[in-house]
Design goal:
It contains seven helices and 19 strands. By secondary structure, the chain is α+β, with helices and mostly antiparallel strands. Strand 5 and strand 6 (70-72) form a beta hairpin. The longest helix is centred in the N-terminal third of the chain and has 9 residues, at 5-13.
């Protein structure tokens, strides 16, 4: 469940620092714990384990963050100058200590596109991770990776919302490997189903366009504040407000523990 950054570091990270790097990178990092696969059509759930860096509603060219005087916008994030929707953006930083299996926040049909790093190598994410884990604060002055690194854009069409949304995966310097579990495009995924893994440090952003007429029909309300540690498929991050005429059609439930495919 969601924890404040300091509580998460105290309870779950400090003890692990005594372990050797070899054990952490081979035994601990690749864990994929079984979790109940929640289904609740009134929420988008976290797509990744990690620390909530930012949660904003922005226009395509508005700065999501500023990195040493250089702004970073939705069009920068998606490398698409034609992207033209005001959107809610939720940024989650996955540290070395997090589970790196990603999950689908809301049921739909997923297609993906990989974009290579702009420079020869990905920029490292370690400076940002150190401020989170050691200084217990969010400092994005060294987040140059947001502009440059390899990324996967996952576009998900959600029939229940009658619109699409995006899960943006950004790889780290050490191992630039984003691995979809299923190669078929436009594959149907249940809410909170596992769909991909990013190796070692990384970031995952949930991007929900505020589209007309969907914005008239549905309301999207961010649920958490930056500085919280989240678990993929467990913690809701955006609440969906349905019109009264539709609310009875949506049901909350939790399935049994999911089988690994």
């Amino acid at each position: 469940m969601a924890k404040h950054l300091e509580e998460w570091v105290t309870c779950e990270v400090r003890g692990l620092k005594e372990k050797g790097l070899r054990w952490l990178s081979t035994e601990y990092f690749f864990r994929d714990p079984a979790r109940p696969m929640f289904s609740d059509s009134t929420y988008f759930f976290a797509p990744a384990d990690g620390i909530l860096l930012y949660q904003q509603t922005v226009m395509p060219d508005d700065p999501i963050v500023e990195i040493k005087g250089k702004t970073y916008s939705l069009r920068d994030a998606m490398r698409d100058p034609a992207y033209n929707y005001q959107s809610i953006v939720v940024g989650i930083f996955m540290t070395f200590f997090d589970v790196h299996v990603n999950r689908v926040p809301f049921a739909g049909y997923l297609s993906y596109k990989e974009l290579e790093a702009i420079h020869t190598y990905n920029y490292p994410m370690l400076p940002v991770e150190k401020t989170l884990v050691e200084d217990i604060c969010i400092n994005l002055n060294e987040a140059h990776y947001l502009h440059s690194n390899q990324r996967m854009i996952n576009k998900i069409y959600a029939p229940a919302l009658r619109q699409h949304y995006y899960v943006l995966q950004i790889a780290d310097y050490d191992v630039d490997s984003i691995m979809p579990f299923h190669l078929k495009q436009n594959r149907s995924f249940a809410q909170n189903q596992r769909f991909s893994q990013i190796r070692y440090g990384s970031q995952v952003d949930l991007i929900v366009p505020l589209m007309v007429p969907s914005t008239v029909r549905f309301g999207f309300v961010p649920d958490l504040q930056p500085g919280m540690h989240l678990e993929a498929g467990v913690d809701p991050v955006i609440q969906i407000e349905f019109p009264k005429s539709d609310s009875g059609r949506f049901r909350k439930q939790a399935t049994q523990y999911e089988p690994h495919e």
